[in-house]
Amino acid sequence: MEKTIILKFTKQTWRKPIIYxxxxxxxxxxxxxxxxxxxxxEAYAIMSLEGPDEEYYKGIEYLKECNVxxxxxxxxxxRDEDSCTHxxxxxxxxxxDALFVxxxxxxxxxxxxxxxxxxxxxxxxxVQCISLFVx
Length: 135
Fold this sequence. Notes:
Largest sheet: 4 strands, antiparallel
Number of strands: 8
Distance between the termini: 17 Å
Shape: elongated
Strand order of the largest sheet: 2-3-1-4
CATH architecture of the largest domain: 2-Layer Sandwich
CATH class of the largest domain: Alpha Beta
CATH superfamily of the largest domain: ACT domain
CATH topology of the largest domain: Alpha-Beta Plaits
Radius of gyration: 17 Å
Strand content: 25-35%
């Protein structure tokens, strides 16, 4: 099983080696796609988590027991090609380079395989041609 999840840490939990516990205690592979500590010492991480089904669910329970809020990412990015002005603003905030400027044409392209639906691009799109939709 492989899923993209968002972990939200509180002021009390973000300094603890909780993610380390996923690799030490469970047969899981993780890839942190984006992470940030916010001004009030709250933090979040968007990560891909992969492993056997049983270990995945045990790992999710472990995170919850550590008081981490866990959200699965059930969304994808959708872009209205006709409205896009190809300004490139979205490419600057994409943590996985799923949005990129394509070669000589200078057109913004979306690689849905790389997209983790973090929503950064939705927030910065000035023409509002990017949206999240539930799979």
